[in-house]
Here is the input.
Amino acid sequence: MMLQFTSQVRKSLTYARYAMVIILLFLVKTGFSQVTLTATSGTASGSFTTLKGAFDAINTGTHKGVIVIMINNNTTETVSASLTASALVSTSAPYYTSVTIYPTTTGLSITGAFATPLINLNGADNVTIDGRVNTTGTTKSLTITNTSAVATAGTSTIRFIGDASNNTVQYCTLKGSSTDAAAGIVLFSTTTATTGNDNKTIDNNDITCAADAGRPLNAVFALGTTGKNNESNTISNNNIYNFLNKAIASQGINISSYNSGFTISGNSFYETASFAASGAVNYKVKSL
Here is the structure.
């Protein structure tokens, strides 16, 4: 038996197909974008394929006020994601009061391979990177990795520079392999501004190498600027492991010059397996 459809039925089926396509496109754009953003001022929302895309939109002043960046799927960054300082006292770009970044599901990653910071907070204040799903619980669900093992200055996974202050990184897995002796997986850097990189909290993270064959020289490193110390920073309750370089002297936490008032507490330093050093090196947990 053959079924014959009237022209009205065919039109209805066509409209239904169009509606389904529109719905699918909407879901792809909103629900399945790697990164989505909401803001209380300027353009209220945005969708991006990378964290850099979200940062760029903030830097140009598209999104303002209280900003939330949600990581919905893994991102592969092709260029360093850099967030610049907010103007705060004017409406010029960028203009934000806070930025919060978190995953919306478990097992997500932000990955890149740069001879630069992967995430660069350049004068950016009031930024929180929280690796818990929707900022609740205690499970670390966001891994941030810079796989580059070069010694180029500034190579790191997260860098604070240019008076970046009042920032928090918590409940993340941070991986890096920088062999820059003046950098680390987490880098408290210098400033050309006024006060230094102050009042930051690095808490309850796993901090480790990106690969066993490429171990960093420092897991956490701090080097400030003459007369503009990095001050009142807290490094607490982190698991810092598999960080000892097998051939070159390396440190877990290395607080170098022009830093003051650091609080370092509750951290665990360890290796998950024994290994033989391939060079005559001295190992230190921290250098103050």
Q: What stands out?
A: The chain has two helices and 25 strands. Residues 82 and 127 are 12 Å apart (CA to CA). Helices lie at 7-30, 51-59.
